[in-house]
Protein 1
Amino acid sequence: MSEPILPANICQRWLGALQPSLFRKGQRGRRALTMPAWDGDAVAAELPAACRRAAPADLPDLSEPEVMRHFTLLSNLNHHIERGMYPLGSCTMKYNPRLNEQIAALPGFAALHPEQDPQDMQGLLAALRLLEDDLCEITGFAACSLIPSAGAQGEYLGMLVIRALHLANGQPERREILIPDSAHGTNPASVVMAGMVPRTIESRADGRIDLDALRRACGDQTAGIMITNPNTLGLFENEIVDVAAIVHAAGGRLYMDGANLNAILGRCRPGDMGFDVVHMNLHKTFSTPHGGGGPGAGPICVTAELEPFLPGPRIVEDDGAYAFTRMPTGDDPAIHAYLGNVGVCLRALAYILRAGCDGLKRVSDMAVLNANYLLARLRPLLPVDHAEGCLHEFVASGRTWKEAYGVRTLDIAKRLLDFGVHAPTVYFPLIVEEAFMVEPTETETRESLDHFVAALEQIRREAETRPELLQTAPHATPVGRLDEAQAARQPDLRWLGPCNC
Amino acid sequence: MPYVPHTPEDVRAMLAAIGAASVDALFATLPDAIRLRGELDLPRGLSEEEVRRFMQDLAGENITQADLVSFLGGGIYDAIIPAACDAIACRSEFLTAYTPYQAEVSQGTLQMIYEWQTFITRLTGLPVANASMYDGATALGEALVLAVGARRKRKVVLPALLNPRWRRVAATMLRGFDVQIVEAPPAADGTTDPAAVARLADADTAAVVVQNPNYLGLIEPVQALAAAGKAQGALLVAAVNPVSLSLLAAPGEYGADLAVGEAQPFGIPSGGGGPLLGFFAASEALMRRMPGRVVGRTVDRNGNPAYTLTLQTREQHIRREKATSNICSNQGLNVLRATVYLAMLGGTGLVELGTANHTRLAALRREVERIPGVELPFAGPAFNETVVRLPRPAQAFRDFARQYGLLGGIPLAGVAGCTENDLLVAVTEKRTAEDIETFAAALAAFASGEEVEW
């Protein structure tokens, strides 16, 4: 008799069941949210017919218990950080402290209207200024803008700031941004949005910058370079001082994608390495929740040289009183209508206060320890080409399993889902074949890392004897592997009735 | 650091497994020259209770819409937030989940987003919607970037009475694409003049924007503007307050190709201005040019219906510099709040919400008209907001209204067709008859020349 599809000792079963669409639930006339009665005099308030919509919007009517049940049952279909591990490389899926949620929900913050006067927001502005100062200290820069709503918007703002500097210096021809081929896809996309031109430079096999290639690429057209450090292979750019010298000598500026900042807190700072701008992902390094895709926040820190080009409003403090300066008017640049994702910033501040200088260093120390421990334990299972000097993450490859057992990295990833472990990042970075990118973060225990290893050991046994088990995985999840090609070929993007696929 | 579980024994055992002498040894690749000497200059870590108290004290220094009666709007509204939104949004299953790339373990988030997309298509009357944008302002900017790329033309027409904060963001986003922005001036009644739009929207125009209601709360002549805008082949972009779609014409009904807006009033706290929730809807023809994430329905290998992220070949992680946008997130948790909100509201409730807003605005306008020295400079049909013209600068009234416990409105100095005496006043479903009487009393006292007392 063969082994069961779901080894009981390490698999997690799902309690959830698929739900009918919200648009098939309810009955016309059921009510949940109702409006306060109008207690004033009757008002004649007919809108002219020309303004009105022809037909009322067709939304289902449900009772509150039905609504709560629908979304609660949907929630049961999700993997999440309080259910199991998320070894997603480059995503830093750490625990999201509950305290931070309480703080962001305090009415003193949550009920503020952004058009109120600064005198009404003194506590908020004090908090935001404190966070700006803390982020500057952590990264080694002179000034911070909390406004970007996400890492990608931080990149975009960083590009605008570098562009503005070159324009102010009378060098509009500096439009080119160098990007190593190991970079995140947002880097080149953000450069384009900012009206600049990305130029890919080939990195070395370990994803690090090739200094010769860099020298050849630099010139009068160079606006700057975007570097992820540690890079997407989890390796520190150990010639960063030379890289900075080359780019600065050519008249360019250095942008650091801070996606991997979780590796180096309290150990070294981008500002001390020669960078001119860094963005941070508060939803990675500083523990704010991912929320199934957002909202996050992507503040940037910059050198004193670039500070004048940060968008307003800027928060200034004078003898304990906070005010705005550089309020945008007319055609001044802006990337957000107000101050950015304030609620996310408050969560990050609470995290930094809780951690302190000692805690932040411990975060990175233990993140790096966890990654190196997993690396040591997984190397007998999967090849890791660039293990030397790995910090918070590493990239393994599924190519040996592909050759030996005919299973792809995707199959391994999908099978892991049956073991209560989220799949690692796969097929990124592009420079590693069958990439399997693992970042455990510091909040995982040794036991949960061991569980991950045990699951992968089991999966390798399966690959040897029953590869179809991987190729058809997952098996314990609410749905099986999806037909993604059909989804893209015949897009079904809204409810029009029972499955028309 | 209590979120980090390692005991000294854990560390010792793990270092042994690695074969490293110390944690410091794991950082050997860091060049000596750039290592931090000593500690970060930050205080040491605090306990949960200390952080809570510190942050509570800061929150306590703020004076908010929970303390005063708010007539502030301008795109962000003091709207009812049902308890169900908070209850569902606190669930770890949604709160702490990652982007639903692994569809098999993300059906909850994926189905929820699909339901959000369905809600947005039904509200806007357009057939396609995405998983959301950062906010209304960037949603508008993305719509214009899309239009410029789709039409391969270099001019856009914006109404002068577009929300000025949105205009600034959209104009910034267009800078990267070498686009000329022209402004359609308002007519005397405070709405955009279709004749001006017809004059400005020529064969080189990629897009014409209609904001309805406009920044002054006035309902635009959308049919005439649409006809004028589209005559030469420009795409029509509708920027709409989604609450108004309870009663007002849907963008799809007047031929919009794209519809965008800010969904904060759907269960999301004003929160000092963020995080917010932009929505984005499009015609079928523009579907594959949309920015951002999109969820589609398909089947799994057993033939069961299931949801997944789709049309990803538009996106930056595949297309890199050729992507339709650099965005690589959506506002997942705020999408959840808005989807729960719309489920709580229902079709019946939606009409009730619109009517409640409209009734209260009409009541406020009626009160204003009775006050000597105060007038409604633009008296046409409005939704949610209105302009009140005062005998003295609006900022002075804002200060004056505080003694009545009011957040009085947004001064309109510098806005097209307005003077420094004009105030933008928002009235939502939360305002009571008493609130409106208080507001009228403050206006009357201000108009009669009383001075600020505090």
Protein 2
Amino acid sequence: MMRSRLAVLLAALTSTPALSAQGPITSLDSARHVLDRLAYGPTPGMVDRVAREGVMRWVDAQLGVDAVDDPNLRATLSHFDILSTPTSELVRRFLDAQRERRQRQAAGDTMMGPRPGQPPPGDAELRRLGGQLPQLVLVRAVQSDRQLAEVLADFWFNHFNIFIGKNLDRVLLPEYVEQVIRRHALGRFEDLLIATARSPAMMVYLDNTQSVKPGASPPLPNRGPFAIGRLGSRALDSMRLEAQQRRPTGLNENYARELLELHTLGVNGGYTQKDVTEVARILTGWSVALRGPVAARLARRTVEEGSFIFNAWAHDDGAKTVLGTPFPAGQGEEEGIRLLRMLAAHPSTIHFVSTKLCAKFVNDTPPDGCIDDAVRTWRRSDGNIREVLRAIIRSQDFWAGVNRGVKVKTPLEFVASAVRAIGARPDSSFRLALAVAQLGQPLYQHVAPNGYGEQEEDWVNSGALLNRMNLALALASGRAPGVRGTLDAVIPLSSDHPTLVESVNRIVLAGRMSEHTRKVILTEIGDLQDPVLARAMAVGLAIGAPEFQRQ
Amino acid sequence: MSLSRRVFLRRGALGLVSYGLDPLFLDRAVYALSAQRRAEPVNKRTLVCLFQRGAVDGLSMIVPHGDAAYYRERPRIAIPRNVVMDLDGHFGLHPELAPLKPFWDNGSLTAVHAVGSPDSTRSHFDAQDYMETGSPGVKSTPDGWANRYCQHATEHAQTPFRAVAFGPQLPRILAGSAPALAIDDLRTFGVRARTSTGSDRLTRAFESLYESGGPATGLLATSAEESFEAVRMLKAANPAALSVTNGAAYPRGRLGQSLQQIAQLIKSNLGVEIAFADVGGWDTHVNQGNAEGQLALRLRELGQALAAFATDLGERMSEVCVLTMSEFGRTIRENGSSGTDHGHATAMLGLGGTVQGKRVLG
């Protein structure tokens, strides 16, 4: 039953002449296209397999997964102990290292301390754990069967970007990635939005922890009978003084602004500076539970270190108006939820996010038809991301010849697709992530909240192209840092060069090699007697070639 | 991209202008003809733009120590009068910018204060976009002002190094139809193999892959073409081998390295007319600090890097101008977190022989 419906759909897609400037799309072309856009490129033989089993069947299976995480990867990911380290423990290590450093500085240690963005010295364990995060991205991108889910997770992380180098975000990010982004990447946009707003990582990154009703201050801690005796009154005073100097004393609009500008309405979404301020007022008190050494001994509540907390004392309880909608006084934490729901359903948000999705999956300049399809489905499905994706994939624009093979791969996409194309895999070190960084996209290190861009102008410049060529050569000769796997398992050696090059075309380029590229490669390997060298050269040139830069 | 016929007739390099030819090819042909004169500087002047991303607090760079309001509005983060390096009795340098004082004294440093965009957006990205595209309030401008300059001012030898940005990505300010190069590190720029013959061979192979008529089109094609031309020229001139002169001491880190390499490019006569580098970390919403602290550390790096650059270039600074810029400034009044929020105007520094120094303008 399923099969015949899919067959009809595929027939419909392939038989409509308007879809392709070059004529009706073949099932191989469709397979290549979905593996380019909805996955990190094909692995050897995957294009044939998907074409044979049915392109839309593959798409539906990808859309139908119950969660982003691929259970088949569980064993591989068991090395990554960042995934099983509780946030509270990470936070404690971080604060300990920070306190240690301050004590050293206070004691006259004149070392300048780390530059912003660099890890604090002296906690090698934290650094080891932190280095696992970008590598996780690569392992999943290359090896997960749930490819579309991984592509979406990357998209949403950039949309709700957080810079790992900001303060506590170094240790708050793992939970953000797993429990906020990956958990909600395929669900409802509203749920994802609310989850980001209630994440400690976001509250720290955009300074909402520093936003309080002007003049508000935390209630005095209830000093237990032993507290002062243990700490000594002088130590208590100096710590209290230091805390006072750092304590926030008013509104901080940073999160409110980016929430409207980047996460929901978009910069042209019709909000004013006044709206930004009102949103900031609504979100006062949305913060993170953190206890320094004094508070830890004096606190009465048990709250997990580094978890979200609503500080009622910091909240501005007055009446507000946002985008013309009144928010009556005295609604506490609940008015923030109400605000987020309103923003998630706002027409500007629907249009803005749909446009971004179409730019990611269809064309750098997203066609109106695609955007309209996405918006309509968003409304109908109440912001169900799966359904919106489905509508985009089924739109005519997605399959149109002018939109196929025209996007330039981002560094992450290039590296992941190159490793997949030669049937290799990343090892558990940090080194492949470093290669992505050297192409201009250090993962989790985009400082500004707008995240990494999708357009070719963001990635195509002379320096970066040369580095892609270098990485291509390294991969092909088995010298790429952080990669395991040999070409032996994938491309048979041959001293007949035309045969060799055709193998490379079929297996590594999925049949995309142009006559021009074929000629150049044959010329270059012409005088190479050593078949291993010839193969490495052919593969290196193929991955560095123009065809492989596009998807 | 259109070139005026006047340019060609004046150069006398080509008798006929055929509008069907790729302009990039033509320009390169013209340059190649005058290559034998490469021993002399090919361009007259160089502008080095240094973008401080994040909206730098100009009031902390050029401190209005003569203004009582400054101290009133910033009880926790004002720079104390006794550590400010006075410039003209009213303004002074942040102590960490002390390395720049000698340049003020010799007339090659100027500051322009309270300068900002006519558009009042307080969004970093928008404001950076407006400043880099040179069109405040308009988001649809596709190219940067530095690139547009290169498009229109064609009485300059077109070399791949005419417009260079240091960093992994080409910034907006140099985006556009005129060729511009993004270099992460001069020493590693190019296709790399174990031997230099290997590198040459592979470079040629990739160049063939990306040549016109093949599968490379659009931005991929033009970008590749520029890369290979640049690689050729770097090989010939070898700027990375040039040592630092006059005892200049660049601070360690990306900013120091970028400026040092810009200096090397200038000294190599490769035709750099516009160079760009950026440095982040200026968005001091929280705990800005005063004479010490977050912002002070950043200013220390900046001061050392600029001073080293000017020292390194020595006499050549007479034809160089370094201009710092930032997308907007910060509030005069400090905020609730011992920092400052987004304000309107900030300070720009002009450093070099082309600058009429020893003034704080604006």
